[in-house]
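Minimal example, chain plus S-adenosyl-L-homocysteine.
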Amino acid sequence: MDFDKARRILIDSISHDIKDRHVLLAMSRVPREWFVPLDLQPSAYDDRPLSIGCGQTISQPYIVALMTEALELKGREKVLEIGTGSGYQAAVLAELARYVYSVERIPELAETAARVLSGLGYKNVQVEVAGDELGCAKYAPYDGILVAAAAPSVHQTLIDQLYEGGRLVIPVGSRLEQELLRVTKLRSGIRTERLGGCRFVPLIGRDAWQE
Ligand code: SAH
C-alpha cells in the first residue's frame, strides 16, 4: 500500500472544496494511517469516517478540513478540541496552531491518541481525559474550540471558554444529523454562521446528550 500516494490523491480531491492551502498542506503532512486500527489501514485515505473502537469514529477527512478551515488559524492560537477520538484532528490542528489541548471522555481512546501523537513527534498537543464539565475550563480562554461530536445546542459553557473574537466550530442538531455552525464570540453576544449538514457521534455529558 502506497500511503503517500493515497494521501496525495485524497488531498487533491478535497482541494476542490477546501481552498485554504495551509489546511491542505497540514493534512498532507499527517499520516492518517497511524490513527486507524491496523485492519482498516488500507482504507485510511477513503474520504469517510472509520471505526476506531469503543463505538467511536475518526471523522471524514473532508469534514476535518472544513472544520479546520473554519477556525481560520494563523499559527499563534491556543486551540481546544473536544472529542480526541483517534487524535487525527488534533494532529491537523497542531500543524496549524501554537498549542492544542484535546479532551476525550473515553480514557482508553485518550491514551492511544496521546501515544500516537507523541510517537509522531507532536510536542504542542496535550490530550486529557474529559471531566464532568463540557470543554476544559482549566486552560481557557481559547482562540478556537473545535467540537468533534454532535451537540444538542451551543452551550454557554463553551462560549465562556473563548476569548472575545474567538471561534467555536460545532455540529448542532439531533443525535442523528446536525448542521455545522461557526460561532464567533463578540463583545456583545455571538454571531452564528451555518456551514452545512453533517453527521457526528453524540457529545455525551451533563450539558449535552445522555449516554
Ligand atoms: N476528532 C476525532 C473524532 C472524534 S469522534 C478524530 O479525529 O479521530 C467523537 C469523540 O468525542 C469520541 O471519541 C467520543 O468519545 C468523544 N466525546 C463524546 N462526548 C465527549 C465529551 N463530553 N467530552 C470529550 N469527549 C467526548
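Helices lie at 3-14, 21-29, 61-71, 88-96, 107-119, 156-160. Residues 56-59, 82-83, 85-86, 88-89, 103-106, 109, 130, 134, 148-149, 201, 203-205, 208 surround S-adenosyl-L-homocysteine (CB under 6 Å).
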